[in-house]
Specification:
Layout lengths: L3 H6 L13 H5 L8 E2 L2 E2 L1 E2 L10 H13 L10 H21 L7 E4 L2 H16 L5 E5 L8 H10 L2 E5 L9 H7 L4 E7 L11 H10 L3 E5 L11 H4 L3 E5 L10 E5 L1 H6 L10 E4 L4 E3 L15 H15 L1 H19 L5 E3 L9 E6 L4 H10 L2 E2 L1 E3 L4 H7 L4 E5 L6 H18 L1
Parallel strand pairs: 3-15, 5-6, 5-7, 7-8, 8-9
Antiparallel strand pairs: 1-2, 4-10, 9-10, 11-12, 13-14, 14-17, 16-17
Helix pairs in contact: 3-11, 4-11, 5-6, 12-15, 13-15
């Protein structure tokens, strides 16, 4: 019997398809896509919120629960050794996936939100003080706003916000003006979850480093849709979630340059993250263990590694090309709809179409299209400042994944016509 580490090192055991990008055979890998919703074929266009899971991920996790489940790192028995191997093989798999220099630079967390909170709490409270500045952008998800507000309130630092323009792009002149010698950290999204905007991260990192600032990148919406190399980007921290990358929920990744992680104090205290504990003091483990207190999500990283195998077998460039085609097709098709206003028209976008229909609340749109079997997202998308910028209470968002098709875009457009038919 193979150990979990074996099936994470070779995708071929779980992936059986031709080298051509065949979206219809890919769809067969996702059992949930055969479901019906309100009696109609399911059209799942809420991938920016969370993605569906291929059979390869389900099988990898099921195998681990059946054959290799035990607590990691702490046991000398066979099951613990199997589980530990799978867990650490997953760390190495993530390292290769994002181009990190060392597996020790990969910290497993619950998701992007916890990763950002970890950096704000540990790096922030150690290195950011009264009078220092934190620079974020107007397009950030709440997860990349609130932790920095908390840090600001705790330290007396200043929180600066670089604006966006009417196309949903970062105003680089204003960003550069706000960046100064007092800036200690820049925290920005790689791809906006509300607009689809792709930020020029590599250029921003170079600008920030020239001022002596560190850079954290929220990559939750980037890693499912494009190739990411953290060393090429040059960023100091990079965060993403498994569940948007066709893996399980409850697990995510913080990448941090090792010398930074090694200088940071623990984020949480407990078992595993220590070397020795007495009542007088505790000596902490080296990264990444220092930041993984308690029993971790043992099987989650196994599922994440299987998801990485899956998308790399398909090819990130192939996925990006397929999704770009869907986005162009949907953008052109919606242009014919009366009262349609697309929110976010950046020159570089990824996989997200946010819009409003004049006179119709997004929640009503979401409810009616659901009756047609179409799953969209309606709301502020945890990006209220973006909604404020465009002077809308909410938007409706269609977000595309590697398994969506042009036929599903047609069904989506037909469902919007149904909205007009019902509500005028």
């Amino acid at each position: 019997m193979n150990y979990p580490g074996d099936f994470m090192s070779t995708a071929s055991e779980y992936l059986h398809r031709s080298k051509a990008y065949d979206v219809y055979s890919i769809r067969a890998d996702f059992p949930i896509l055969a479901e019906r919703s309100n009696g109609k074929p399911l059209v799942y266009l809420d991938n920016a919120a969370t993605s569906q899971k291929p059979r390869a991920v389900l099988e990898a996790m099921d195998w681990t629960y059946r054959h290799a489940y035990a607590n990691v790192h702490r046991g000398v028995h066979t099951l613990s050794e199997r589980a530990t191997k799978a867990y650490e093989d997953a760390r190495t798999r993530v390292q290769r996936f994002i181009g990190a220099a060392d597996p020790r630079e990969i910290v497993f967390v619950r998701g992007t939100t916890e990763a950002i909170n970890l950096v704000a709490s540990s790096f922030g409270r150690t290195n950011i003080h009264s009078g220092d500045e934190i620079l974020i952008t107007e397009m950030e998800h709440h997860s990349n706003i609130v932790p920095w507000q908390l840090l600001r309130d705790q330290t007396g630092a200043k929180l600066r916000v670089a604006p966006i323009n009417e196309t949903g792009e970062l105003v680089m002149e204003e960003f550069e003006r706000l960046l100064n010698e007092r800036t200690r950290i820049v925290a920005l999204v790689h791809v906006s979850n509300a607009l689809g905007t792709i930020n020029p991260v590599k250029r921003i990192v170079e600008m920030a480093h020239a001022m002596g600032a560190k850079v954290l990148v929220d990559g939750a919406q980037a890693v499912p849709h494009m190739r990411v190399d953290v060393q090429d980007l040059g960023c100091d921290f990079y965060a993403f979630s498994s569940h948007k990358l066709y893996g399980p929920s409850g697990v995510g990744v913080l990448y941090g340059r090792y010398e930074l992680l090694d200088a940071m104090p623990p984020y949480q205290g407990g078992g595993e993250m220590i070397r020795r504990v007495t009542f007088e003091r505790s000596d902490y483990a080296k990264p990444p263990t220092r930041f993984e207190a308690g029993t971790p999500n043992i099987v989650g990283p196994v599922g994440l590694a299987a998801a990485i195998n899956y998308v790399e077998e398909l090819g990130l460039d192939n996925i990006a090309a397929h999704e770009d085609d869907l986005l162009r097709y949907a953008t052109e098709a919606t242009a014919e709809l009366p009262g349609m206003r697309i929110i976010g028209n950046a020159a570089r976008k990824a996989s997200i179409l946010s819009f409003e229909l004049e006179g119709i609340h997004p929640h009503d749109i979401g409810t009616i299209v659901d009756h047609e079997g179409v799953a969209l997202r309606a709301g502020h998308h945890c990006a209220m400042p973006v909604m404020d910028h465009f002077k809308v209470p909410a938007t409706t968002r269609a977000s595309f994944g590697l398994y969506n098709t042009r036929e599903e875009i047609d069904a989506f457009i037909a469902s919007l016509h149904k909205v007009r038919e019902v509500l005028g």
